[in-house]
Amino acid sequence: MASLALKDISKRFDNVKALSRVNLHVEDGEFCVLLGPSGCGKSTLLQIVAGLTGQDEGSVLLDGEPVDRLSPRERDVAMVFQTYALYPHMSVSQNLGFGLRMRGVNKSIIRQKILETARLLGIEHLLDRKPRQLSGGQRQRVAMGRALVRRPRLFLLDEPLSNLDARLRINVRLELKRLHAQIRTTVVYVTHDQVEAMTLGDKVVVMREGRIHQIARPETIYDRPADTFVATFIGSPPMNIFKGKLTWREGGFKFQNEDFSLDLGRLPAPPGEHVVEIGIRPEEIDVGQGPGTLLLAQVEMLSNVGADKYIHARLEGTPITVRAPKEATYQPGQIVSLVIHPERLHIFYKGRRI
Ligand code: ATP
Question: Does residue 282 sit in helix, strand or coil?
Answer without folding.
Answer: helix
